[in-house]
């Protein structure tokens, strides 16, 4: 076979003949995917050393006090995927954080849409923060929200049955960047 024949045969090869018409994804398939994502979390343990995967996967459901169970998969170095069997357990884990394992912070993220786990930065963590030495006149929900926004991304405030801050301090839940140092004083 000479070079002209080989070139002719190569020119005849085409993937376009095998390509078919594009088909839209059925809405039910997309809805099922979104429903499954609603039961998932991904997490990374912020540590320079690798954690013991078996110990982590055995202990973390007990620490979280999961009622209906969670399936845990190792995705990468200190990165895990959590699939909960019920949305209530997933919500409880998100609300109960931040979580630690082996003296290291576990950063959780909610997967959305077309996210690739390798592209998640795992830097934002929600913390409950106590704000002390607030004058009594400033012990209001509005001041708590204002101060919470100074600390980070405000999520919620802990108020008494009166709807106001009645503690010795104001308690707010804020999302902060775990890679940056915390401010001690506002």
From TrEMBL:
InterPro entries reported for this sequence: At4g02000-like, DUF4283
Residue intervals of the DUF4283 domain: 35-109
Domain of life: Eukaryota
PANTHER family xrefs: GLYCINE-RICH CELL WALL STRUCTURAL PROTEIN 1.8-LIKE, OS09G0268800 PROTEIN
This protein's name: DUF4283 domain-containing protein
Organism in which the protein naturally occurs: Acer yangbiense
